[in-house]
Amino acid sequence: MSQPDQELNTGSSAVFDSGRLLHAYLVVGPDGTQRDTFTDRLAAALVCSSSGTVPCGLCADCRKAFRGVHPDIIRRGKPADKAVFPVELIRAVCADSAVMPNEAGRKVYILTDGERMNAAAQNALLKTLEDPPPHCAFILPVADPSVFLPTVRSRCAQLRVPDDPAFDSQALADAERFLELLASSPAEAAAFLSGLDMKKEGRETFFRFLDAAAGLAPARMADGRLSPAMWSRLDRALDRAEMYRVHNLNTGYIVGMLTACLTAPAGNL
Ligand SMILES: [Zn+2]
User: Fold this and answer.
1) How much distance in Å is there from the Cα of 194 to the middle of ligand 1?
2) 116 C-alpha to ligand 1 centroid (Å)
3) Most buried of 26, 71, 111, 137, CB within 10 angstroms?
4) How far does the centroid of ligand 1 lie from the alpha carbon of residue 178, in Å?
5) CA 105 – ligand 1 centroid, Å
6) CA of 256 to the centre of ligand 1 (A)
7) Residue 70 Cα to ligand 1 middle (Å)
8) Which residue would you say has higher pLDDT here, 77 or 203?
9) 137 pLDDT tier (thresholds 50, 70, 90)
């Protein structure tokens, strides 16, 4: 089975459409919170038992995934005492991938330290990437995708996370604050959104904030900091915002839509 060699936008809702999940992803971006958050979200999406937009944040698989205890999300990297990612470890991963998942519909392998995977290790992995068991998916977070052989890259969809760490940490901090407010007072969360838009730091800043909020929200739902009802409103509002973004509507208009969605009385949705 072959994987498309394609680059996807991490903000695209197609990435998190349960019907369009793939077997192998390179998550490309500098080491750090944004890439880790995105990788965790993608892993949760791959084990989520819901249909439609994933991760749903509600199912048992999502809850375990966001708590870092899902038995079908397996992380492997270079051991601290080794200089390279041992080829034996890759072979063990490939052998394990033939075994059915414990609980979820898929087993997800997150393979870090791609920079330390030599050609032998990559070729061992390639055989499985070329013909992956249908119940498996691989995520390879990496700063520079060129560390992988072209044959490995061609089997993976590339997802590029934003690469400005200072900028990302601001987007994440704003998203944390917004989600905190949303849990206690949707009206204050809406006011916070308007404040962000007033800063006029630009459209991309605003969308990075929305991406960060979308990335953090499922974990907050899973651990009870955001109610299922509010999560469902937010999820729908963010989907709509993504559509508006694609159609190039201005951020003021998007803030208006988000405010209406987040603060409307329950009966008016
Ligand atoms: Zn789920």
Assistant:
1) 30
2) 33
3) 137
4) 22
5) 11
6) 29
7) 12
8) 77
9) very high
For residue 48, the CA-to-ligand 1 centroid distance in Å is 4
Find the 32 Cα to ligand 1 centroid distance in Å.
25
Phi-psi domain of 180 (left: phi exceeds 0; alpha: psi -120 through 50; beta: other): alpha
CA of residue 140 to ligand 1 center, whole Å: 22
Mean pLDDT value of segment 205-234? 86
CA of 210 to the centre of ligand 1 (A): 20
Dist CA 159 CA 43 (whole Å)? 13
Q: Distance from the CA of 65 to the center of ligand 1, in angstroms?
A: 9
- Domain 7-160, CATH: 3.40.50.300
- Read off the pLDDT of residues 96-114 as tens digits, 9 standing for 90 and up: 999 999 999 999 999 999 9
140-152 confidence digits (pLDDT tens): 999 999 999 999 9
Q: Compare 78 and 173 and report the one with higher pLDDT.
A: 78
Among candidate residues 62, 50, 74, 105, the one with its CA nearest the CA of residue 223:
62
pLDDT at residue 268 above 80?
A: no
Query: Ligand 1: distance of its center to the CA of 240 in Å?
Result: 20
